[in-house]
């Protein structure tokens, strides 16, 4: 009970004599005084005498002189005339509130109550309200009270509220008196009686106001409500209508006594009401997303169209009927179907199912399909396990799938286009959208932050959070190779101290990854190490490569960052295990280098393991393995006597067995008759000596085989005895009972332990621990990965897989809870579509940091979705969410003055000449230009490659007359030129330390270049530079950098054939995309080499449609080189 916890100087336990004839019952009541003391309990008055006279003076002082309120708590009342009670004095009078006292409780209170086991995870806000009321309410004489307290520095604050309440009470009572006087249904006696009661209450209210200190109006009231082992700090807000609104700010558990003297007893019902911010936000968002200008509504329309196209395609393909058994290939199978619909494409997925799903059989709309999915999830129906495989090729009437599984058992199943992967993605997007629109994101305000509305204003907290300081010297030294600029410091500060989102735009080479690494290190440094910080931060991106790129540079708390989820084409995420093993080997190598004696100790630990295994499961094979380890690995540590003994034991074991029955044929082949021996007897002897069995023979046996006696009859008797002896000795026998450990090996074990003093001293024990540690580091990636996951401050995954089973399990989230991170950092965020971004954004409680560049590759949208819809012209769809939120951040700043967006202004990747070119051609017009502070070209960007020595801008001219564009966009002469120069440079003395990137805009050109590399370079040569060369389309290069970059533009046309009727896309294809050009021309450090038709790109039409390439050609002519 709450009163039991009150232990102040004004609490007295006393022995009391009951002066009444009836026994007092245990319970709560009030102390009274009218010439003598009495108690009012259980609605009865009992006259009493306080026996403890030594406490009576103090009790008289507090009760009669100070006029304190006194509650009595009967502790023991088993005796007839005597009982024990506790008197609890309160310095302030009890006050009546004639209306319930309402306090709002929100998500934070709910989460704390669940965490502290006050309620269960499944319990809702309404159940919590009931529990809190029970814990806080105090029943005295069948009436309800509760306790409040304010801090010593502001004891009177609570009376401000109470005074205002009592003034209102008096006003209401006077109004009631007036109504009674005017009530014609009452007689005069009834009116007089009712008015008398009202005036009595008014007098009490006025007396209370007179006693309360007079306070000026305070802006904010803060006090606490106490209950059984809990207290709730409460704040007062004033609504727009001028009403008071009380909100619990947190829920605090306590185990110790309450020692506050400022407790106040309030007589009133206390009610806790649903103050979930999420429900208010959900209502606001519900109205907003119905508007045509809603950002989320536009993406709902896009998702619906995307889904309709997916269903339409699945229905058009229908069931694929397999004609023959699957034909194995190098990396999968070829499947021959009765017919291959034209809708079936490379990179689609096939599913093998028992029953054709309803979305193919029935005429489902997308909305109906989604409703069915949601219903299944609501009902908790188990999902069918579906085997799904990616199509790598569709040609020549065959469909090739990639897999390392055996699919022979699946051949009798039905084949359909799989939408399972899409379905999983759809379900995750739907779950994120649902959390957003219901205000149940980790940050419930996220929906209002995203939508272009001012509704967010009424929820913004004007109270500033404690500022997180930026770089410390240790982090700066660890992360930055150059002194961080003011611009970089500001970016870090914005990210750390944003109240919700931060947008860091990083043009090429401006050090986005460095900034992200610094942010993570600072958050880790300032994290409360006594709290649970596992997976506090999520680092994510749209693609595995982007995620791996950033986590490869992280080393938080000395641990590699675990990555969850795998590529769809692999069974396990090999990269994760490779990273773990690499980290483990680095640590173990470092330990062994610093403690070389551990190398020997590791051999001893291995020996212990061999001994242990042998003792538990003794066998001749294990005995031989153990003895060989002693002889070959411990020879430098053991004395000659022990080694000789070990050799003799090994020889005896090897002589007693053969490891292959096939070798016995040499024994059976021995000739024991005169005729047979004269035929090839000596040859059979030699064969036996030369076989593996020959090594098992002793000297006498070898002598018989090597030296034939002149007395052949006597000799054949010797051979016959030897033959049977060897068969009897060496023939493997079936063992029907467990072998016992060999006593000689046990003795050897004891001798070696004594000789090496294994495990004897403290140093040995320490070495033993370290040796075990090294063994785990080097040989147990699964346990090591689990251990790293358990202690990692940072988790990582792709955006889609951030809701996967593996990462949810690692976070140890209850089934009914959602995954929540303190901070979510999204790299290459401009590439992520809004619905994928929402998946991770709804998981961020404290801050969302979006890092990217909307001037580079855009987010991925399905051209089929927008080409036939009105969405093609909609900025919400065509513009990245990153760019949209950057604009939105500026609007939010205008509301609260907090800066949330910044563009990095210094690039460190590329040659200053190329840096200036990229800034001028892609960023300056948007007021996002940047500088290149590394001016020492010779130090940072020198390359001595022949023909282009120290030249950053190069154009290799491949004239239109040399070769034309080919179908599906490839150009062989460009591929040939690139491979020729690659041959010159990649193995040259100047180029052997450089890495090379070959970028193009077309998949067919990539294939052409790769084939030419295979033709030009041997397998060994290709293996030697595989880590220094990447060939791919521009889409796979964002976020990467190379010393030298070739850009194959492919497009070429005779300039005389160019006319105004030709559309820019027909002439230049993907080259008209400024975003793609920006990426393709900004990956290099030292030199960018464009390979293409100089005349074509020097034309007026090129200047008009692909100005950036035209300008680069001019740069090459002016300050670079033309080859």
Automatic annotation (TrEMBL):
SUPFAM superfamilies named in the record: P-loop containing nucleoside triphosphate hydrolases (SSF52540)
Residue ranges of every copy of the AAA+ ATPase domain listed in the record: 498-882
Coiled coil feature spans: 163-190
Coiled coil found in the keyword field: yes
KW Cytoplasm (keyword) present: no
Recorded GO MF terms: 5'-3' DNA helicase activity; ATP binding; hydrolase activity
Keywords assigned: ATP-binding, Coiled coil, Helicase, Hydrolase, Nucleotide-binding
PANTHER family to which the protein is assigned, alphabetical: DNA-BINDING PROTEIN SMUBP-2 (PTHR43788:SF8), DNA2/NAM7 HELICASE FAMILY MEMBER (PTHR43788)
Protein family membership: Belongs to the DNA2/NAM7 helicase family.
Stated name of the protein: Protein containing AAA+ ATPase, core domain
Source species: Sulfurimonas gotlandica (strain DSM 19862 / JCM 16533 / GD1)
Phylogenetic lineage: Bacteria, Pseudomonadati, Campylobacterota, Epsilonproteobacteria, Campylobacterales
